[in-house]
Amino acid sequence: MMYLLLLVGFFFLVKGADVFVDGASSVAKILKIPSVVIGLTIVAMGTSAPEAAVSLTASLSGNNEISLGNIIGSNLFNLLVVIGVCAVIFPVATNLEILKRDMVWNIVSSAALFALILDGRISRTEGALLLTGMAVYLLLLIRSALKNRLEGEEEVPMSVFKSLIFIGLGLAAVVLGGRMVVDNASLIASAWGMSDTLIGLTIVAIGTSLPELVTSVVASRKGDSGIAIGNAVGSCLFNILFILGMTSAITPIAASPELMIDIGILTAVTILMFIVARSKMQTSRLEGAVCVLGYIAYSAYIIMR
Q1: Helix, strand or coil, per DSSP, at residue 208
Q2: Contact 147, 141 (CB under 8 A)
Q3: Among 107, 114, 154, 266, which residue carries the largest CB count within 10 Å?
């Protein structure tokens, strides 16, 4: 039964992402704003729902290190696997706005997280600072959207109401599918004799990031790189500034020395992805494959340590 439910989960993921991307693209056309802005906001926040649920639940139960580990792992997956797989499917052209604004914000946010955690914890005050950073970032996005309204009449595939229905139903299917995949893959792994620790470091960590991966891949195949890359980068920013800001504002987060190493790796990866995107102004298939291999190497490292 769990094998059948696993397949059903993947079906919901793929079909939900397809509907979600169609609705989000339609909203961008209706509002006459670049699809990258929708990718950085509605799509990024929507696909980060699993991480938000896990982190907030952990915070309320007083187990905040889970939320920190979840965010670090999710961001590394977004940068290396989501962008990497999209590039392998079709070389990703660099969006200048994402490069100059959002990827720089991502570097600063990751470096700020590393600096905040040097004393071994993120306090409530520091959580409030992260939330303030999220508010400032959203204001910049709104200003950019208003400034870069698209001119002319573009064919809109569906009405506002239908677009919102597509976004809601698509997101619900993506989140439900991701949950089904994680739960049933964990059951299968347990039946095969895998330890709970190994399951947590691999299946659960990757499972909460499946919505970002599937949504970005679907968007990339539809030729909408703005949503694909905006989703990955926007999710990283949302994870650090909003989810970690919110969870640490509820309960201060303590970090183990091992997690501090992971935050250092995350910061290095954000800088590396900026360099890759800036050189030749695209991420090639080869660079995408190297990114995926880098994530596999990181996974091997955390399993062995």
Answers
A1: coil
A2: no
A3: 266
**What integer is the mean pLDDT of 21-33?**
75
Beta-carbon contacts of residue 191 (< 8 Å; ≥ 6 apart): 2
Backbone angles phi, psi at 174, to 5 degrees: -65, -45
* CA separation for the pair 276, 282 (Å, rounded): 7
| 61 — pLDDT class (breaks 50, 70, 90) | low
**pLDDT score for 196:** 47
Tokens read off for 50: 């699993």
3-state secondary structure at position 223: coil
Question: What dihedral do alpha carbons 169, 171, 173, 179 form, nearest 10°?
Answer: -150
Euclidean distance between CA atoms 223 and 102, whole angstroms: 21
**Residue 240 · residue 115 · CB < 8 Å:** no
Written as one letter, the residue type at 65 is E
Side-chain half-sphere exposure of 1, counting CA atoms within 13 A: 1
Provide the 8-state DSSP code for 251: S
Asked whether 185 and 8 are in contact (CB, 8 A), the reply is no
Please give the backbone phi and psi of residue 253, each rounded to the nearest 5 degrees, phi first: -100, 125
- For residue 152, pLDDT beyond 60: no
Tokens encoding 91: 């070389």
Q: Phi/psi at 121 (nearest 5 deg)?
A: -160, 160
Return d(Cα 121, Cα 288) in angstroms, integer.
Answer: 34
